[in-house]
Prior knowledge:
20% of the residues lie in helices and 27% in strands. It has helices at residues 40-48, 63-69, 102-107, 110-114, 134-143, 198-211, 218-228, 248-260, and strands spanning 5-10, 31-32, 36-37, 53-57, 83-87, 120-125, 128-130, 148-154, 164-168, 174-179, 188-197, 233-237, 242-244, 285-286, 291-293, 296-297, 302-303, 306-308, 311-312, 317-318, 323-325, 328-329, 334-335, 340-342, 344-346, 351-352, 357-358, 366-368, 373-374, 379-380. The strands form seven sheets. It has a seven-stranded mixed beta sheet with strand order 5-4-1-6-11-8-12. A six-stranded parallel beta sheet has the order 14-17-20-23-26-29, with no helix packed on it. A six-stranded parallel beta sheet has the order 15-18-21-24-27-30, with no helix packed on it. The longest helix has 14 residues, at 198-211.
Amino acid sequence: MKKEMLAMILAGGQGSRLGVFTKRIAKPAVSFGGKYRIIDFVLSNCSNSGIDTVGVLTQYRPLILNTHIGMGSHWDLDRINGGVYVLQPYMNETEGNWYKGTADAIYKNMDFIDNYNPEYVLVLSGDHIYKMDYNKMLSYHKERNAKATIAVIEVPWDEASRFGIMNTNNDGSIYEFDEKPENPKNNLASMGVYIFDWKVLKSYFKQIETENVNYDDFGKNLLPKMLEDNVEMFAYPFTGYWRDVGTIQSLWEANMDLINSEEVLKINDNKWRIYTNTKAMPPQYVGLKASLSNSMIADGCMVLGKVDHSVLSHGVEVGEGSIIKDSVIMPNVKIGKNVVIEKAMIGEGAIIEDNCYIKNDIDEINVVSEYEVIKAEAILEGGL
């Protein structure tokens, strides 16, 4: 059962900055792009990269996420020797703690990793939108004889303080890791994608048991300690599309990216498909007086009004005379007649009754919670 590399996906985050959209589900399970959930992208990356052994570490409200993943068959991860495993915190003979951080989550699943005796462990975040061939990153790791490799991407300078920043030498080796610095020295941000030599990473985890040290988090604890110990650590430069959808603003923007330009993030790329647990829905229906422009409409939608520059998830209904613009409508939303919705995110299962007005004159996003009912003729002008 030995594997050269297995993947561990950190998918237990609460995602509090997504507010109403994560009250009942984990952030990686939030709907995205009409028919997907956020975690579909990292699972599809694993499948397309030929990584057939994946642990998904869940914690916060995991039911919908667990159900969505199932046995992994939708990502070709239902294997006899390998496959996808949902790994939740558990009680042992001495403790029953939740995962205390990113590194602690991996540490508490050492037995699972050891079952496959890998040379390398790929650690991934389950809440980012991107397409990436992890084999190219592994080749980079091997070529440099690295013990740890961190994928990095250039971010706008005014956003750099939101991320872990890698300060590197000319050869790409990392000499300093700055966790969310106030005055960053560069704009190379960690993507939350790590490759570790398992023997090296395991040796640090063993110190937790023998020396009572704190290695709960990769960015705050473990990576700085590895740099202090002169462990060979390199930054892997990534130049494709990547977005951390940790806020309502960034989630809305990432959905808009799908329709603003095909070149940003190609969903219809047959060479690198994004797989998902597809719902059995009827074909979309567009009425005689309806109009669609520059929008993504999932199966099961019934559109009788006007939809412009928007993303409609499966099962959405838009009544006659309604206008939807610059908005993301999550699954099974029912929109009545003569409704106006502009620059909004409408949560799953919400009901917008007739003659409602959801719009404002300032550059903010209007938000409607999951399963919220907006009564007839209501006016919602407040933004995010």
